Amino acid sequence: MDDRSNKVILVPILAVLFVMIGYQYICPAGSNSCHLRTRDKLAEDTDEDPPRFTPRFNFSERDLLRRVDFDIRGDDVIVFLHIQKTGGTTFGRHLVRNIRLEKPCDCRAGQKRCTCHRPGKEESWLFSRFSTGWSCGLHADWTELTSCVPAVMGRKEAKKNGRNFYYITLLRDPVSRYLSEWKHVQRGATWKTSLHMCDGRAPTQDELPACYSGDDWSGVTLREFMDCPSNLANNRQVRMLADLSLVGCYNLSFMSESERSHILLSSAKTNLRNMAFFGLTEFQRKTQYLFERTFRLRFISAFTQINSTRAAGVDVDEDVRRRIDALNFLDVQLYEYAKDLFLQRFQFARQQERQRERLRRSTGSEEVHHGQYSSPSQCSLTHTHTHTHTHTHRWQFRVTDSP
Question: pTM value?
Answer without folding.
Answer: 0.80
